[in-house]
Amino acid sequence: MGRPPCCEKIGVKKGPWTPEEDIMLVSYIQEHGPGNWRSVPTNTGLMRCSKSCRLRWTNYLRPGIKRGNFTEHEEKIIIHLQALLGNRWAAIASYLPERTDNDIKNYWNTHLKKKMKPSDQNEEGMEQEGHSSSSSHPKGQWERRLQTDIQTAKQALCDALSLHTTPPTHVVPETKPSTSHQPYSHASSSYASSYENISRLMENWMKTPNSHDTNSVGDYSFNNMVNINTPRSSSSEGAHSTTNTTCAQDHVFDLFTFNSSTNYGAPSQTQAPLTMIEDWLFEDGASQSHEDLMSMSLEESTSGLF
DNA sequence: AATGCCGCCAACCGCCGCGAG
DNA sequence: GCTCGCGGCGGTTGGCGGCAT
């Protein structure tokens, strides 16, 4: 007997989220902040599983998420981090704050996996074989090999990052891919789910105030929401500050303005900013001065193996 | 124009870790 | 120390859209 499902199957809606559901979820989180997902369906009236609500928020409604095509820069980072960390998408996503683990996972499975050259796949296979066959090595020998692997991955990541002269901007969400990538194709074809859609939805919502129950939407106006792409000095206030309902209105922008220091229910709470990696990569004697990061990488690489 | 195939991705499912009681 | 419940994570799938025939 496994654990019972997180919610009753009966009466739980499944499938794509509707704009109305998104609004209900966003307005609730704006008032109460992310978390306590168990209570979200009951408090919002959403006929959704708590997990579904959390997933919807973290993957699509959470501010700061960059939709659209992956840049070459991001692509290379993913490839090398995947080689380094394996299919630990949440860990990989923590290095790409604008991307969700689900996005990265999908992108890997649909693009990068097949894009990998056979030689790369061999390398990956060797690396994973090195992990899986670790039991055949004495621990000291295995550790040396792992260190070598990490050095190799580090060098590869360094190569990838050095292809670009400008550091990645994970603070500004509206940063467009530097390449000629087109906007996210799905966004135009369906309700998919970005906060841009929510904004448009809110616009219509606010234009027809009588057509809905204002209690479920909250007090914020669309005028605030349309500025989601407007750069502004990020407040130190995060989503958690919105638990104070008086602050919620004052800092309504913050909910839709990405703040790298704020983690709106992001996959990982222990983010290592990308710039930290780059510092680690580019700094001379990095292995000495950033022993903590190295040990973190080592720890992450080896977790689950012992 | 109609049909089938394929790729992509949003969402679900099940397991795991961790903290509270 | 044990149990339970919640949140997080990774694998998988179903549906939709685009493309080929």
Unreliable spans: 1-5, 119-148, 163-190, 208-274, 280-306
Estimate the helix proportion, in percent: 40-55%
Q: Structural class, from secondary structure content?
A: mainly alpha
Counting DSSP H or I runs of 4 or more residues, the number of helices is: 16
Biggest β-sheet, characterized? none
How many individual domains? 2
Average residue-wise pLDDT: 56
Architecture overview:
Its main location: nucleus. Residues 115-144, 165-188 are annotated as: Disordered. The chain is mainly alpha-helical. The chain folds into 2 domains: 19-66 and 193-255, no CATH class; 72-173 and 272-302, no CATH class. 53% of the residues lie in helices and 0% in strands. It has 16 helices and no strands. The chain has helices spanning 19-32, 40-44, 50-61, 72-85, 89-95, 101-115, 118-132, 139-162, 185-189, 195-207, 222-225, 245-250, 252-255, 274-282, 286-289, 291-302. It binds a DNA duplex (21 and 21 nucleotides) through residues 2-3, 5-6, 14-17, 35-38, 49-52, 54-56, 58-60, 87-90, 101-103, 105-107, 109-111, 185-186, 189-190, 192-193, 267-268.
Please summarize what this structure is:
With 306 residues, this protein is mostly helical. The chain has 16 helices and no strands. It has two domains: 111 residues, no CATH class; 133 residues, no CATH class.
